[in-house]
UniProtKB/TrEMBL annotation:
InterPro entries: Peptidase_S1, Peptidase_S1_PA, Peptidase_S1_PA_chymotrypsin, Peptidase_S1A, Trypsin_dom, TRYPSIN_HIS. This is Trypsin. One of its GO terms (molecular function) is serine-type endopeptidase activity. Transmembrane segments: none annotated. It holds the Pfam family Trypsin. Belongs to the peptidase S1 family. One of its GO terms (biological process) is proteolysis. Keywords: Disulfide bond. It comes from Nonomuraea fuscirosea. Residues 41-66 are annotated as: Disordered. Residues 93-318 form the Peptidase S1 domain. Gene3D superfamilies: Trypsin-like serine proteases.
Length: 325
């Protein structure tokens, strides 16, 4: 890594669900590279500073067309790069539909220009959980809008005052592990948090993916991400369907019948399932499940298993039993 890159603590991210480029306001966004994985600048005030094994841009994967591990190194003023995701799961998730209900726990994380760059989930009145690779934006330039299906309106908007990455989080693009982080809000919100599932569920368990990510693989077909929250009903599948998965802390999911999955800008968002009359958080959108063989979003995807980190979340937030949504 060059001295300049080292001093900037540039971390090469290979997550298929990150965003791709530096965005400006809607209608005036800068180039939106199609890579799903980007280089994030650390030095952002997170408790667990740099991720281990940072990979220089020069060693990033090449020759993969719309590669999921494209490294984007850039900054706007003091702001570093924002999450650029690579091929994850589905239709605005690709192949999804407009949200059929108002989920109180859904969160859009915004960069310094107020633009959505990752999803998150409200797990306590003053805490949201997201992917670790969504935590590299400088803390002073991150805000969260909690609740509501419109990415721009409604809900409660809060500043992020603290970022806590899992102590074992590894941002190595070739070996992304423990991809989870908690963001503390400047004050509690009125929206109801979601309860974390006791366990993820066996293969064929029906789940729902939520996000404001891109709704197609080709940026020419959907040049702008959706304004309305998207949802996709899908299934958990055997771990063997996803490459590079950690069975103890990850979940593999793939739609059983169609080309549908989370995609760019869905990173950090929730995988949920219905338990009785309420929703439970099952996973956090993390990365592609077959990026070495298929550069597209559709196909298997990997989610961080929320249940595996339940104790860490409770200890960090100091809220052992969040009110169920």
């Amino acid at each position: 890594m060059s001295p300049a890159a080292d001093s900037a603590n540039v971390v090469a991210m290979t997550n298929r669900h990150a965003l791709t480029s530096i965005f400006t306001k809607r209608g005036d966004r800068a180039e939106r590279g199609q890579a799903r994985n980007l280089t994030l600048a650390a030095g952002d005030g997170a408790e667990h500073g740099q991720a281990r094994n940072p990979t220089p841009a020069a060693t990033d994967r090449s020759g993969r067309g719309r590669a999921r591990s494209l490294t984007l190194a850039a900054a706007i003023g003091s702001a570093a790069i924002f999450t650029a995701a690579t091929a994850p799961p589905a239709n605005a998730i690709i192949g999804g539909r407009d949200a059929t209900e108002n989920y109180s726990f859904t969160v859009t994380l915004r960069d310094g220009k107020g633009v959505h760059y990752c999803g998150a989930t409200l797990v306590a009145p003053q805490w949201v959980v997201t992917a670790g690779h969504c935590s590299h934006v400088p803390i002073g330039q991150v805000s969260a809008k909690v609740g509501g299906t419109n990415v721009e309106k409604g809900g409660s908007v809060r500043r992020v005052t603290k970022i806590v990455r899992h102590p074992d989080y590894t941002a190595d693009p070739n070996d992304l592990r423990h991809d989870i982080a908690l963001f503390k809000l400047d004050r509690p919100v009125r929206e109801t948090p979601i309860r974390i599932a006791a366990r993820p569920g066996a293969p064929k368990t029906q789940i729902r993916l939520l996000g404001w990510g891109m709704t197609c693989e080709d940026g020419n077909e959907c040049p702008e991400p959706p304004t309305t929250l998207q949802e996709l009903d899908s299934d958990i599948v055997p771990d063997s369907r996803c490459a590079g998965i950690d069975a103890a802390s990850d979940i593999c999911s793939r739609h059983p019948t169609k080309k549908a999955q989370s995609c760019i800008l869905d990173s950090g968002g929730p995988m949920v399932r219905k338990f009785g009359t309420r929703w439970e958080l099952v996973g956090i959108t993390s990365r592609d499940g077959d990026e070495m063989t298929d550069p597209n979003c559709v196909g298997p995807g990997v989610w961080t298993d929320a249940a595996a980190y339940k104790t860490w979340i409770r200890r960090t937030t100091g809220t052992p039993h969040p009110t169920p949504a």
